[in-house]
Amino acid sequence: MTTNNFGGSAADFGLPSELELESLANSLLSDIDGSLFEPEVCAEGIEELVTNGDTGVFDTAANKASKVFGGQLKTQDFENIIDDLKREAGYDELSGVASEYSGLTDIGGGFRELEDQTSTYERTDANKRSQHTGYAPQVISQQQAASGSDLSVRTTADDRNVIPAKDNAGVDSRTVGGQKGNSQIVIGTKTLEQIRQDFPILQEKVNGNPLIWLDNGATTQRPRQVIDRLSYYYEHENSNVHRGAHTLAAKSTDAYEKARQTVADFIGAPSKDNVVFVRGTTEGINLVAHSYVKPLLQPGDEIIVSLLEHHANIVPWQLVAQETGAVIKVIPVDESGQLILPEYEKLFTKRTKFVSVTHVSNVLGTITPVAELIAIAHRHGVRILIDGAQSIAHIPINVTALDADWFVFSGHKVYAPTGIGAVYGKKEVLEEAKPYHGGGNMIQDVTFERTIYNPAPNKFEAGTGSIGDAVGLGAALDYLNGIGMPAVSKYEHELVTYGMKELGKIQGLHLIGTAANKSSALSFVIDGVSNDAVGQKLDQNGIAVRVGHHCAQPILRHYGLESVVRPTLALYNSFEDIDTLAKVLRSL
Ligand SMILES: Cc1ncc(COP(=O)(O)O)c(C=O)c1O
Question: Which of 85, 162, 445, 557 has fewest C-beta within 10 Å?
Fold first, then answer.
C-alpha cells in the first residue's frame, strides 16, 4: 500500500479519528492550490475507513464534498460508490479501485478538473478576455439599434474559438451504451423502461418514427403522475386559495401549500416560507433583480454574471443597471467552457453588490462550481443568486448546504407544467426584499394611506397564482423523489458521457462545450452542413433537438458561432436514443 496524505499507511488507521476524517475530506477536496489530489490515496483511505465500519466518514466526506460539488453528492451516493467499488474491484485491487473512484468523482465535481484548473488557466489566453472593467449596459429598441447604438458586448474575433471534438478531454467514458435493454437498466427504484412508460408522449410517432425527445433543455415532458394529479386537482379540488371559507378552498389551499413544502424539501430549504411561487426562472430572476438588488445599487456599483448565462440572467441585470448606473462584469470561461475561478475572484471590488450565475449552462452543459462561486462571493460580503433552470432536473440540490442566498428554477424543466417555478431565498434576504407586484394576497391590511404587507412568501405572490400548476410541480418532484435524485444524476452522467463519446466519433462534428463536469447538453456543429439542415433531418427521423442561439448569444459568440444544434438529455432518454441520433448524423 502506498503512504497516504494523512501520514501513515492505511493499515495503521484503526478506527478513524476526527483528524483522519478531516484529512480524508481534505484530501478528497484538495483544491486548485492544494494540488495533491491522489485518487489512489483517497480510495485507500475510504476503503480502510469503510472496513473499520464507521459510516460517519460518509457524512463528513459527503458534507464537505457537497460544498464543492454544489450539493450533488449525498451520503447515499458515497455509500453506493463504496458498494460499487467493493463489488466491482475488490479491496486488493487498489489501482483499479483508484481509477474507478477517479472516474466516479466526475459525477460530482470533477476532481481532475479542479486539479487542472490552475494549469488550464495559465495555458490559455483567457485572462486577456477578462480585462473588461465592466459593461455599462444599454437595453435598446430595434429601431435604436438600427440607428447605430450597440450593446458593445461582443467578443473580438480573437476571442473566438471552436473546440474540435477530439478535444473532448476529461469526460470519462465508463459505460457501454446499447449493451443493456431498457428494462435491465435500473435507475433508483425503477427500470428505464418503466420510466419511459410513465411518459405517455414518448409513445408518439413523429414523421412515422417513434419520438426521441432530445429538447429537454427547452422543456421536459410530463409523466402520467403529473398529468393525473392535474386532472384530479381540476376534477376535485379547484378553488382559489387562502381566501374562501368553504371546503374546496381549504382543499386547494392545502394542495398548494403542500406543493410549496415539497419544493422546499426537494431543494433542501429550511422552511416552505423560503419558497415563493413564480411563473418560472425568468420571472424569478426579475423578481430578485428588481425587489432585492436594485434598491442596493448606486451609480458605479457592480453586478457579476458569467459568460455562460442565458439571456434571462443577463437582461434583468442590464435593466436594473441601466436604471441605476451600475455596471455588469462577466466571469470568463476556459477553453472547455468552465468558469475560471481565479478570474472570478479578481472581479470583486468594493463596488460589487451582487453575483448571479447559472448552475448549468443551457448550451454547453457545463456544471459550474457553485459551492465555490458562493463561498467566494460570501468571502467578499456579496450575496449570490444561482440560476437552477438547467440543474433542477439533473442534479440533487441542497440550497442550505450550498449556502445559496437565492436559487431559482422553472417547473417545466423538471417534468412539471409550464407557468410555474420557484424562487428560494434565505429568510433575511426575503425580509429585506421589497414586494415585486402589488395586489391581493400579498397584503395584511390596506387603507388609502398605507399598506401592510404579508411576510414572505405571500409578500411576493400578488394576485392569483397558477395554483393547479404548483400542485403539478409538487407531483413532479414527488415523482423524482420516488426514483431518487442521486440515481437520476448518476444515470444521466453515464448517458451524457456516452453521448459525448459517440458524437465525438463523427467526422466533421465539433462538440461545443467539453467541460469535465457536464450535464445534459450535447451541443455541436457539423462542417459543411447548416444547423437548420441538421435539425430538419433529425426531425424527419422523429428526433427533436433545438437549433439556434438558445437565448445564450454571448457564450455562443465567444466560440465564434451564432447557432448550434443542441440535443439535451433527460431521465427517460436511453443509450439507444443516442445511437439513433449518431446514426442519423453519420448519414448526413
Ligand atoms: C439557464 C437558464 N436560465 C433561465 C432560463 C429561462 O427559463 P424560463 O423560460 O422557464 O423562465 C432558461 C431556459 O431555457 C435557462 O436554460
Answer: 445
Q: Position of cell 376535485?
A: 236
Q: What is the pLDDT of residues 421-445, one digit of tens each?
A: 999 999 999 999 999 999 998 999 9
| pTM of the full structure | 0.75
Question: Would residue 551 show up in a list of annotated catalytic residues for this protein?
Answer: yes
Determine the atom of ligand 1 nearest the C-alpha atom of 358: 1
pLDDT for residue 67 is more than 50: no
Cβ atoms of 585 and 503 within 8 Å: the answer is yes
pLDDT recorded at residue 114: 29
User: Tens digits of per-residue pLDDT, 76-123?
Assistant: 555 555 555 455 444 333 333 334 444 444 333 333 332 333 233 222
pLDDT at 194: 98
Nearest to 531 by CA among 463, 455, 585, 471: 585
The CA 553 to ligand 1 mean position distance, Å, reads: 13
Q: How far apart are CA 66 and CA 374, in angstroms?
A: 13
Q: Above 80 in pLDDT, residue 50?
A: no
pLDDT on residue 10:
33
Q: 148: exposed, middle or buried (C-beta count within 10 Å: 0-12, 13-18, 19+)?
A: exposed
> Among 215, 279, 281, which is best to mutate for testing ligand 1, by the most ligand atoms less than 8 A from CB?
281
In angstroms, rounded to a whole number, what is the distance separating the alpha carbons of residues 473 and 416? 5
d(CA 389, CA 360): 8
Query: Is the CB–ligand 1 distance for residue 474 below 6 Å?
Result: no
Contacts of residue 585, defined as CB under 8 A and 6 or more positions apart, other chains included, come to 503, 506, 509, 526, 534, 538
Sign of CA dihedral 97, 101, 102, 104: positive
Q: Are 287 and 278 in contact (CB under 8 A)?
A: yes
Closest of 392, 333, 316 to residue 359, by C-alpha: 392
Q: What are the residues whose beta carbons fall under 8 Å from the beta carbon of 512, sequence distance 6 or more? A: 162, 163, 337, 363, 364, 523, 524, 525, 556, 559, 561, 564
pLDDT exceeds 90 at position 280: yes
The DSSP code sequence of 468-496 is: HHHHHHHHHHHHHHHH-HHHHHHHHHHHH
Closest CA to 353 of 175, 134, 89, 563: 134
For ligand 1, the distance from its centroid to the CA atom of residue 362, given in whole angstroms, is 8
Distance 478 CA to ligand 1 centre (A): 22
Task: Take residue 207 and report the three cell numbers written for it.
Answer: 414523421
Atom of ligand 1 at shortest distance to CA of 360?
A: 1
Average pLDDT over residues 224-228: 98
Q: Is 567 in the pocket of ligand 1 (CB under 6 A)?
A: no
pLDDT tens-digit map of 524-539 = 999 999 999 999 999 9
Q: What is the reported pLDDT for 111?
A: 33
Asked whether residue 482 carries a pLDDT value surpassing 50, the answer given is: yes
Distance CA 405, CA 427 (A): 9
Tell me how far apart the alpha carbons of residues 227 and 233 are, in angstroms, rounded to a whole number: 10
Q: Could you tell me the distance, in angstroms and rounded to a whole number, from the CA of residue 457 to the centre of ligand 1?
A: 22
What residue's CA is closest to ligand 1, atom 16? 362
DSSP per residue over 260-282, as a string?
HHHHHHHTT-S-GGGEEEESSHH
Q: Which helix (H) or strand (E) holds 205?
A: strand 205-206
Grid coordinates of 480: 423524482
